[in-house]
Structures are given as structure tokens and as C-alpha cells.
Amino acid sequence: MVNTLVQRQSQRSQEETLVRWLEEVGMADIAQVGGKNASLGEMTRHLKPKGINLPRGFATTAVAYRRFIESVGLDRLRRLFHNLDPADVNALHQVGQKTRHLILNTPFPPDLRRAISQAYQELCHSSGPRMEVAIRSSATAEDLPDASFAGQQESYLNIRGQQGVIDHVHRCFASLFTDRAISYRILKGFDHFEVALSVGIQQMVRSDLATAGVMFSIDPETGFKNAALITAGYGLGENVVQGSINPDEYLVFKPTLKAGFPAILAKRLGTKALKMVYNSQDSQHSSNSTQNLAVPLAQQQQFALSDAEILQLGKWAILIEDYYSQLNGYPTPMDIEWAKDGLTGELFIVQARPETVQSQKTPGVLHRYKLQGTGAVLVAGRAVGDRIGQGTVRLVCNPQQMAEFQPGDVLVTSKTDPDWEPIMKKASAIITDSGGRTCHAAIIARELGIPAIVGSAVATTLLQPGQTVTVSCAEGETGKVYQGLIPFQVEETVLDQLPQTRTQILMNVGNSQEAFGLSAIPCQGVGLARLEFIIANQIKVHPLALLRFSELTDESAKQAITDLTAQYQRKSDYFVDQLTQGVATIAAAFYPHPVIVRMSDFKSNEYANLLGGRMFEPQEENPMLGWRGAGRYTDPNYQAAFGLECQALRRVRDEIGLANVIPMIPFCRTPDQGRKVLVEMAKYGLNRGENGLQVYVMCELPSNVLLADEFCQVFDGFSIGSNDLTQLILGLDRDSGLVADLFDERSPAVKQMIQMAIHTAKKHGRKIGICGQAPSDYPEFAQFLVELGIDSISLNPDSVLKTTLAIAQIENIS
After folding, report:
1. pTM assigned to the model
2. DSSP per residue, 766-801
3. How far is CA 117 from the centre of its chain?
């Protein structure tokens, strides 16, 4: 290769200005080879030596494009665009069609044909005379931090032969004037004739025999910077990019992955119903160089990547992001395409460009959308963004129907591609049948700032044209389409200049799907993460029904459990795996701040509602005071189920590296019961004091206060559960409307007990906080706690900011 480079550098012929090898270019050459090719060259030169695989290739230059366009006739082209209104879809289409016709009917100059042919021949020396190549457009204004031209121009895969390569480069030149590319340039303020086109020609990675996909070095929905999202499907990566399939999704946690932990936070199985492969016919002159085949059901139900491959891609995402951040002098999250070669088993990076949505958001301003009512859910899918939109359903099945689309309509379609962008920017929301969070519809919706739901599977079947709907992406990772126009509000909060408080302000978090978004609210960790939410909403199965599956008599429950656990040889592994993912996601969102995870505290009637649960739960007269919390954990009838929780927390802390997790034991009636629980936890590798492990206890029983000296010898900290503590001190049922008026945490009896608890904890050097709602509801109660020197106050997300300000004021006064 060294001799070849010297040879090239010594030849300064006119033809050499028309073609450049990727290993010769870098980010300083965007004006000559476009953002995509410049980035490939930059990585080839600087990241390939660090172990990142990139396919070899070359690029036509902006000089080549401009010389060709001059032969077409620049003045003639400018006249076509005079007074073009991009909102006029028909006029846009006519101008684009005429321009492309002119370009495609103008032959390439002989020196350009010769330069492309010679470079292709040299590329073929290592792989045979008719090597397959990928041919991708790269605009000279492409992939800048505030404008992603991704997908605006054409790309072609599995192209062979000199004439096939030349023909497809020609088509790429014409694609600079597709309707969507014209519209997009006008939207972003680029002059059509100042932008030039380079075309990259790369050796094909044989992912048609394996897998491919997209990854972001941040979470693309929330902008959470410490996680990377990887998506994968079978075959060539175009199906993932275009949204033709629902891909697998994997989340990795970058800080502990860097530290050497196998930090996979979550894995979500996609259907992956299609795979794009090479067309068996010769593709030299055909635009149909690829075809889609159905994926067998058994293969759909397997993950497309192994854990080792997920981790390898995650490490590469970190390397690429870190390199470009250093090069640019500011954080540069990246949007990356990858592919696996089915012949060699190697992974490759085939594209990398700056992420253009989250990285451009105004820092220090938090917007939260909230529904003010509810309604019938018509359709659900993957939420893109965190906004809410409303409008009239407009079903668009093909480009010919685009002219019917009106501003403010809700676009409903099977999938989108770049041709749809002129109407996408008019939509109030977008809903598709297929696609994942890295597909075309998702990327463009984020960029336009409109809510989208992808991968619904049934939207085009169930939603009717003319129907009014509300599209909510503000309720976690599942987006919902509600019937009718439901009122909603938008809360805008400026986060800068928030005062620091001596009292730690923590947050209560239940839904792991909301954790990344909630982490943007300034706080110092999580004071209460409830396992019950993860178990009820993500796992849905009683743990004993998994451990003793063969004993179940409820056939419908058995079938439901069989479906949920289809990927697991041992059904109990499903519980451990899903719980690990839920807890790890919350812990990662707030890392390295403490995340206090309360072990399960369902009552027997609540446990019975889980799949298969009725067989294992007693009928209790008063479940609130019955078989719950610590009392279950050491009971022979439940010990094994508690063991599953312990296994999950050990994996989160020791395997993923999230040692900021602090387990907390609920409803622990006596110190001896607490000691027995610690022994049980130790059986599963959760040894108090090892790897910095602390174990807290809920302070929610009078015995926790009266025996606080002894509890301090067993546990490392306390969290006051003011709801249970109040009802047990005052002797009332907080769920009974008959005595509801008597329930008040500000009761002198309750306050005296809280004072005793805080005093005793402080005496023994133990941490103590509170995780009830009272401090945000009653300013005087917050003042009472602060004056006693409580270490932390944990609040619901909507109370954090106002209570932070109130506590800062109290601390200043006191």
C-alpha cells in the first residue's frame, strides 16, 4: 500500500483531481469529497490503527461533479429553479424530474469515466475482477452538526463491473435533485448549486449473509449521553435505515464499558421479518441489485447479535465519539452504520456522521409534555421523542397520495423514505407500521421536532382516514394513539442557576423506561426505585410461577408465560434478566449518584394479580399488615423467589459495574428479621460491605423507630416511608375514605417519631432520608425535616424543582 500511495502522490494528472482514495482524505477535505467520505477517510487514517474495521474504497470529487454539471448547463439548471415554491408538491416534482432527466441524459466526460474505471480496477485487485461495491452519495454540505443530509441522495448496493459502477455514480449525481433533496436544502438554507456531490465507492461487506444496523453514541430520544443505542436486523442494513423492519435494540452503558465491564443495559427483540440480500441476477445495469426475503420465524425469535458483538460495537461507538469530540473541541455524539461480514464473521463500520438532533438542543431548558385526560388507546408502538401531537388521520400508502396531505394532519403509513420528507414536515405526528428507533421516520421526526410512533404493526389497518387522534410519546418508550383530541400541557423549565442545597434532593423513579429522560432534572440520585413497577409492567409474571412452572394448573396463564419466556431455556432466567435490565437502566441514568432500590413490597392480593400468582398467594383479611416485605424473604415458601431479585441486583452491581445501587429492605419488623434477610442476600453474592455494598431499611413501622439503635447495627441507612408510618402510628387505614380526613403526616405523634428516628440515625452515623410526598405538599413539613438535619428528601419528578427552591430558601433562613 505504501508503494501505491507514493505512486499516486507522484502522479499529478488532471484525472487524479477527479478521484481520491479514502485513506488519502480526512475531515479537512469535506469541500472535495463531502462529509460522509471525509469521515470515512478520517476514520481509516486514525481509527483503523486502533482496531476499528472499515472497508476500503475511493471517492469521486467535487471537481468531478462540477465539471460534469458545467457540461449539463448550469444556466439552464438555474432557470428551472427560479421562483420554485417547495410547498407546491406538484411543482417540486416537475422541477426535480426535469433536472434529473437532463443529468442522466448527459454522458460523463471521458476523463471521468477513465478515472472511475481505473480506481475500480485497482480496488478489484484484492478480490477479483468483478468485486461487489457499495456506491453512496456524499454531499459537500452533508453531515454537518446542524444538518443531516442522510438519505437525501441515493445509495446503491451490490454493484459489479466497470460499467455498472459508472452508471450508478451517474445516478448518484442525478439524485442530488430528488424532490426530497431539493426540499431539504431549501428548508436548511443551502444553495442548490453551491452544494456539490462526491460519490463513495466501497468494497461491499457481505452483511447479506449476516447482520447490519445503526447505532447512536447517545440515546437518540432523550439525549442521555452515557448510553449507546445499537439496532440490528438480518441482511443488508438498508431495511433498518429505511424502517422496513422492526429491528432488535440493545443499550450499552459507556462509563462502565470503558472500565472493562460487559455493560449491556437492555436487549429488546425485534421481529426482523425481512432480510435484504443480493439479487441473484446480474446487477450491472439493474437498479434492482438487492431483494428482500422472509426471515424464518425461528430466526426472528433470536437476537441478531451475540453479547460479544454488542460489546464490540459499543466500544467502537465510544472510540468514534471520543475521537470526533477531541477533533472538534466539543462533545460530538455520532450516528453510525455498521455491518457484519457473513464470510469472515468480522464487524465493520461503514458510515459515521454527527448526530444532529439532541446535540443541537438548547441546554438548560427542560420541556415536559403531559396529557390532561385519557381516552381509548387505538394503536401503540415505539415512541420517538417525548412530545404530544394531535390532528386528523391521513392515510398515505404511496407517493401519489401526497398531494392530499394537509398541514397539521397525522401521517399514517407503513413506512417512510426520503421521498416523503416534503409532507413529513407538515405533519403534526407520524405513525408507521414498521421501523425502529433508528429508522428514517424516527430520525426525520426527531429532526423536525414532531412526535412519531414506529413499529405499530397495525396503524394502517386500524386507524381510519378523517379520524381525530392524539399521539402521545410522553409516557415512556411506548407511544400511544388515543381516540379524539385529549387536552395536554407543556411545562418549560429553565434549569440553570438552580441553588445547591445541603440537604440531598433525590427522586422517586418507578418506570425504567422514563429514567433517561428524568435524569435531565437536576437531582443527586434516586431515593426510591420500586421493583414492583418493573415486575408488574415489564415482567408481569409471579416469580414462583416461573420457578414452579410445571405445577401450574391455569392453562391460559401457562400459555402466556410460555410466550413471554420463549427465549429462555430456564424460565426463572426471564425474571432475573428483565429485572436486571430495569434496575440497570435506572441506575445508569443517575450514575454515579446513589440509586436506592427497594426490594419487592407487593401485598399478597397484588402478587396474586401477576400471571400464575393466585396459586401461590394466601387469602388475607388485611394484606397491608400481612405477608409482605422482609417477612417474605426468609420464609421457605418465598425464599427462592427473593433469590431471583438478589441475583438481578448482583448482576447490576458486579457484572454491569453499577455499584451505585443500594438495596433497601421494606417492612422489616425486627432487627433479627433484618439479620436473616442479610444472610439470605449473602447466599447470592450480595455481601454487605463487599464492593462498597450498603443495605438500607425502610423506616415505616413504629418498631423501626423504637428499636432504631439496634437497626443501626444491622443496616447502613434508613428511608422514612411516611405513608405507612403515619397510618400505623395513628392506627388508621389510609385506603379508607371513612378516616381519610385523619391521615396527616404533620400530626405531632408522627413528627415526634420522625424526630426520634433522625436523632438516633445521626447518633450512629447512619444516613437517613424520606421518600414520601409530604415535604413537597407541605412547606412547613419540609422545614421541620431540614431543621432536624435530615440527609435527603426524595420526591416525585414533578416536585423536584419547586421543592429544591423551597429547601434552599429554608436553609438560607435557618
Report:
1. 0.86
2. -EEEE-SSHHHH-HHHHHHHHHHT-SEEEE-GGGHH
3. 42
